[in-house]
Structure formats: C-alpha cells, structure tokens
Please model this.
Amino acid sequence: MKKVIIISASPRKGGNSDILCDKFLEGAAEAGHQTEKIFLREKDINYCMGCGYCNISGFNGCAKNDDMDGILDKMIEADVIVFATPIYFNTIAGQLKTFIDRIYAKYTKIVNKEFYYIMTAEEEGDKTIQYALGEFKGLLSYLNGAEEKGYLFAGGVTQKGDINDTEHVQRAYELGKTV
Ligand SMILES: Cc1cc2nc3c(=O)[nH]c(=O)nc-3n(C[C@H](O)[C@H](O)[C@H](O)COP(=O)(O)O)c2cc1C
Model:
C-alpha cells in the first residue's frame, strides 16, 4: 500500500484537470493505495518571500504561517506525488508555480518519491507541454531519489467539463491503477 497525494492546481473546481485527478485517485484506490487530493484553490498558500528563513532553519520550515507547512508534511510522508495543472501560456498555472516555490522550505526532506503529472489544455500536440515538463524537471532535479513515473496530457479541452466526453477520463483511471 502506497500513500498517494495529488496536488490539483486548477482554479476551477470540477474543471478538466480536477476531474482527471479524481479518476486517477479512483484507479489508485482500487489498486489498494491510500489516496488524498489537495485542491490548491481551497488552501491559504502565499508567495515565497525569499527571506532565507528556511536556509537558516536547515530546511525545517517556513517563516510564513499558512497551509503550506501541513501540505509539505504530507508530501514528506507520501510515496507518490501527482501534480495536476491546466496549461497556461504554454506552461504550468501560476498557482502551481507558487506552490512549488514554497516546497523549498522543506525540500531536502522530500526524498525517494514517485511523481506523475496531469496536464490539460485547449491545444493538442507535444509542444503544448514542453515547458510544463521543464518546470517539473527543474523541481525534481532538486529532490533526492525523485523518479518521474509518467504523465497524462489531455489536449483539445477548453470549457469546464469538456474532458467528460473524451477517452482521457479512462486513461487517468488506468494510469492511477498502475501506481
Ligand atoms: C490564463 C489561461 C491561459 C491559457 N493558456 C493556454 C495555452 O497556452 N495553451 C492551451 O492550449 N490552452 C491554454 N488555456 C486553456 C486551458 O489550458 C484549458 O481550458 C484547460 O482545459 C483548463 O483546464 P482546467 O479545466 O483544469 O482548469 C489557457 C487558459 C487560461 C484561463
């Protein structure tokens, strides 16, 4: 049994990537894993201020007192971490980048994790996600023992719920089952 957490970064609850998160977790739960979704829109997560408190504390926390510290502890305990984001201007959405920057406060403790990514966009084709994949690679290059296990890209979806008419819903479920 693995602990799986999914970071759902769309500002749209019930949006395309959020729906894929639920299907991924359904598959992972059926495969016998413990699952939890963290929906960033509902969390109080502020910008990294670059104050250096985390460097001084030995990467043991942040000077800011918001929801991030609790989420970082869940990431430290998890075996599998999934990032889900809409594609905005050819890369990850800003709310996910804000979240990723705040990982710095405890990043040395996030070790030996498996990572998956879920991305949705209006456009199709591999070029649409090249910069988003670069963002994730940038983060993982700092995390000891991080392993990129796979990703799901669903292009051709624009309005909230468009994803329901596509095969990507089943793909997300199947990917979750492979965890
Ligand atoms: C600010 C903004 C920027 C976007 N930029 C892109 C883009 O660069 N390429 C693209 O294919 N779709 C772009 N889209 C469309 C979304 O990626 C698409 O609607 C996606 O399905 C939204 O996922 P969600 O329902 O999970 O929020 C953009 C949408 C918004 C609101």
